[in-house]
């Protein structure tokens, strides 16, 4: 079953966040799992179903995949008069359930949700070639305008 996560899901979502980060190689950072999990809980307590919406796939009441969208509001542009975009993130499927079209279903839910909120712009970031191919099927394209800075180093 696919559904929108609720406050009762926060413990499971924060545990999945740690799994997701470890799998992407983030365990090399000097951060304890419990600290990351607790910070994820704090974030979800503050943002879930306010400006951060997480869609989940469940099997037997176990969350096996997530795909979230955060609504970010910028100063309006000629190309986006509302100034709102949906930033898709936390796209994760437990390894044993991959390659079954689950993320395709979850991304469709995110897009449907954004359209219901009259948000016509969506963004995401990834370097995963498999994910890039999936996102292209939904009309995503790569944009080279973004620059980043690690402010801790300045």
CATH superfamily: Gcn5-related N-acetyltransferase (GNAT)
What's the helical proportion of residues?
25-40%
Low-confidence segments, given as residue ranges, are: none
Structure classification: alpha+beta
Q: What is the count of DSSP helices, taking H or I runs of 4+ residues?
A: 4
Number of domains: 1
Q: Indicate the overall shape.
A: globular
| CATH domain class name | Alpha Beta
- Compressed to H and E, one letter per element, the order equals EHHEEEHEH
Give the N-terminus to C-terminus distance in angstroms.
46 Å
The CATH topology, please?
Answer: Aminopeptidase
Count of β-strands: 5
Rg is 16 Å
Write out the strand line-up for the largest beta sheet, numbering strands in chain order.
1-2-3-4-5
> In the CATH hierarchy, what is the architecture at level 2?
3-Layer(aba) Sandwich
Give average pLDDT, whole number: 92
Portion in strands = 15-25%
Main β-sheet: number of strands, strand sense, barrel status?
5 strands, mixed
